[in-house]
Specification:
Length: 521
């Protein structure tokens, strides 16, 4: 999940312990229902039962408007009730959903989307007019929906419904990665003219039953779902802001699924038989950002020295309790276009000292901004401080306000802790590494790099486009401003009888929180 999503997710932890207990008590009082045990078999999906899933929430102001989704629980509820045209697979490549297929013109500035046969919960078919209405609602200049920026490449005024099942999107510029837009966070399709979501009607695998903001949402199976009816008869989302409350509810049998455990909690319960721990790999990039437009990091030799100071294994083991894998100063490990052939960087303090001497930066002192804004931030800052000292660099760790941290580090300071959720490499580049990028925390601004990106977006052949992405990544690996030391697992836990939870999907991809594929054994 990206830095904004991470920040918003943490807001769910602000519910008072008393409110959490009340929410759990009210939502769980009825107890779980289960399939007939005589018919249950561990190896095959079994229909029936209610699964209760505990998430951090957003309080009494929660909404079921899928375009207003910001928190993890918002995203999980939205994907249960609604569909997007596409979603991201485990490799962050777009996978068709309501879109059966997409096809660009030769210049990559017009795309035709063919819809699959699907229906809303009230029986109305999903049409091209519903798609255009949904996207225009998201892109409304007066609105603040999260997917608005993702839809910016589309000229919605010039886009049209060719027929009931075909949408023609006209773009403002060539965009080879346009299907990423179809999979954007919050870009769900709602029925035309929908403005109220107190009793939402979607096309997703579950249909609405009841909702208590800040407490619970109850859904029922959609037997007419286009991809096949869910195994579960009912799905209930329960709000539990504190991690301890989610784990306690799972251990106590009040819920069957607990979202977002920290590594220490997972390690304490793993392998003891009471709960099953599921680690979703590659879900969060962990690193530091160096601002390349100001001293000392405007000298690429200083940046290269800091790459070599980092002992990545020590950072993963110490800051993430080993729950992750080491990084190589490039975003999107294992994802489409990732330059996996570049040599893995290792700590080399002697070479780091030599680079600092060449740059006239012996005895360097820097301030490392951090905050308890994400798991492992404070720990990683302390570990890197000790590593830097061994290269003759003094790092002063400055702990800031977690509520304003992401805004604070975007423009101020020189060196800071950083985290991002999974997203396509193209999105990472466009949002963070172009001269005009709005979240360019490293201040990496190079016209020739911008030109490479634009060339990639105008290149139809995927092999040629892949080669262009590799050129961009080689340069970032050599002299960029992201010191990416690791990729953290995202951790969920379930009751032992829960089956079908994906163990390969990073958080916020298609198969994360995929409750229509889960069943109770």
């Amino acid at each position: 999940m990206n830095d904004a999503r991470s920040r918003l997710a943490r807001r769910g932890f602000l519910l008072a312990a008393g409110a959490t207990a009340l929410a759990l008590t009210a939502a769980c009082a009825a107890g779980a229902t289960a399939p007939d045990p005589e018919n249950a078999a561990d190896g095959a999906p079994q229909p029936g039962g209610r699964l209760r899933a505990a998430f951090a929430g957003g309080g009494a102001a929660e909404t079921l408007d899928p375009h207003a989704a910001n928190l993890f629980v918002d995203a999980a509820r939205a994907k249960a009730l609604f569909d997007k045209l596409a979603d991201f697979g485990a490799d962050l490549a777009p996978v068709p959903r309501l879109a059966a297929r997409w096809e660009p013109n030769d210049t990559l500035d017009t795309w035709r989307i063919t819809l699959r046969t699907a229906a809303f919960h009230d029986g109305r078919p999903v049409t091209a007019e519903d798609v255009l209405y949904s996207y225009r609602r998201i892109a409304d200049p007066k609105g603040t929906f999260r997917a608005k920026a993702s839809l910016d490449p589309i000229d919605l005024a010039a886009s049209r419904a060719v027929d009931a099942s075909t949408v023609e999107f006209r773009l403002k510029r060539p965009y080879a990665e346009f299907p990423n837009t179809l999979a954007a966070f919050g870009a769900y399709i709602v029925p035309k003219d929908t403005t109220a979501f107190d009793r939402p009607v979607g096309s997703g695998p579950f249909a609405f039953v009841s909702f208590k903001p800040g407490s619970s949402l109850l859904l029922k199976r959609n037997p007419a779902y286009w991809e096949g009816a869910p195994h579960l008869e009912e799905l209930e989302f329960v709000i539990a802001g504190e991690e301890s409350a989610r784990v306690g509810a799972l251990l106590g049998g009040q819920v069957e699924y607990a979202h977002e455990l920290n590594p220490a909690t997972a390690r304490a319960h793993e392998g003891k038989g009471r709960i099953d721990v599921v680690r979703l790999p590659g879900s969060a990039m962990q690193g530091f950002v160096m601002k390349t437009d100001r001293p000392p990091f405007d000298d690429k030799r200083v940046r290269q020295a800091f790459f070599l100071i980092a002992d990545r294994r020590e950072l993963v083991d110490g800051a993430l309790s080993g729950a992750g894998e080491i990084g190589n100063d490039l975003f999107g490990k294992g994802c489409q276009y990732y330059a996996g052939g570049l040599p893995q960087r290792a700590q080399d303090l002697e070479r780091a000292r030599a680079l600092l001497k060449e740059a006239g930066a012996e005895g360097l002192k820097v301030t490392l901004d951090t905050a308890p804004a994400a798991t492992g931030f404070i720990e990683a800052a302390g570990i890197f401080k000790e590593q830097a000292a061994r290269a003759g660099v003094t790092v002063e760790v400055k702990v800031g306000n977690k509520d304003t941290y992401w805004k604070d580090i975007l423009s101020s300071g020189t060196f800071a802790s950083y985290r991002s959720g999974a997203m396509p490499i193209e999105s990472h580049v466009s949002q963070r590494l172009l001269t005009g990028s709005t979240t360019n925390a490293t201040k990496w601004q190079h016209k020739d790099f911008d030109d490479l990106y634009q060339q990639a977006q105008s290149t139809r052949d995927e092999k040629e486009r892949t080669a262009l992405y590799e050129r961009m990544q080689r340069r970032l690996h050599d002299e960029g401003g992201f010191l990416i030391w690791g990729f953290a697992d995202w951790i969920v836990a379930t009751a032992p009888r829960v089956r079908g939870v994906s163990k390969t999907a990073p958080a916020n991809t298609l198969d994360w929180a995929r409750f229509d594929k889960i069943w109770l054994a």
